[in-house]
């Protein structure tokens, strides 16, 4: 019935040969892919890598005397910020004292901050002066730093928001 349907449609059905007849014999395969005319000979081992080896020497200090350069203090913080921080960021010390030279900045530690948006260094370094630390505003609960100015959004209970929006005033 199957062949009748295909015959009615005009489709020719091919009868596949048996699997054993489909495989080529060894003689046919060797005729298709003849063996190479030149036999492959394995290479002889090359020279020993020992000729390339050398004895490692221990480092020997030179007699060159290095001169110690003094670190000159860098006056503006902006100059040191360009050396230590990415663009648009400023350097602030981690301690309460301001280092005077580049080596002191590195020894004492520093952080790079965006003075226009950082909550703890808003408009200046909060580690040097608490007026720049928005989180240190007495009675403030919700704060933000906008354009280098601290802004208070909400106050703790017992405090009310001041009209300027920068502080909280005790309501008692």
TrEMBL record:
<feature type="domain" description="Protein CPL1-like">
    <location>
        <begin position="110"/>
        <end position="169"/>
    </location>
</feature>
<dbReference type="InterPro" id="IPR048661">
    <property type="entry name" value="CPL1-like"/>
</dbReference>
<feature type="compositionally biased region" description="Pro residues">
    <location>
        <begin position="39"/>
        <end position="48"/>
    </location>
</feature>
<protein>
    <recommendedName>
        <fullName>Protein CPL1-like domain-containing protein</fullName>
    </recommendedName>
</protein>
<dbReference type="InterPro" id="IPR038955">
    <property type="entry name" value="PriA/CPL1_fungi"/>
</dbReference>
<dbReference type="Pfam" id="PF21671">
    <property type="entry name" value="CPL1-like"/>
</dbReference>
<feature type="region of interest" description="Disordered">
    <location>
        <begin position="39"/>
        <end position="65"/>
    </location>
</feature>
<keyword id="KW-0732">Signal</keyword>
<feature type="signal peptide">
    <location>
        <begin position="1"/>
        <end position="22"/>
    </location>
</feature>
């Amino acid at each position: 019935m199957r062949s009748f349907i295909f015959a009615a449609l005009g489709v020719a059905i091919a009868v596949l040969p048996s699997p054993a007849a489909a495989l080529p014999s060894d003689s046919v395969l060797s005729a298709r892919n003849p063996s190479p005319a030149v036999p492959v000979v394995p290479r002889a081992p090359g020279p020993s890598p020992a000729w390339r080896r050398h004895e490692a020497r221990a480092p020997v200090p030179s007699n060159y005397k290095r001169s110690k350069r003094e670190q000159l203090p860098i006056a503006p913080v902006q100059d040191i910020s360009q050396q230590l921080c990415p663009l648009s960021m400023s350097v602030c010390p981690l301690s309460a004292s301001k280092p005077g030279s580049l080596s002191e900045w590195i020894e004492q530690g520093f952080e790079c901050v965006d003075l226009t948006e950082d909550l703890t260094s808003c408009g200046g370094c909060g580690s040097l002066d608490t007026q720049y630390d928005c989180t240190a505003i007495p009675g403030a609960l919700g704060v933000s730093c906008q354009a280098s100015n601290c802004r208070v959004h909400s106050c703790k209970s017992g405090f009310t928001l001041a009209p300027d929006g920068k502080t909280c005033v005790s309501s008692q």
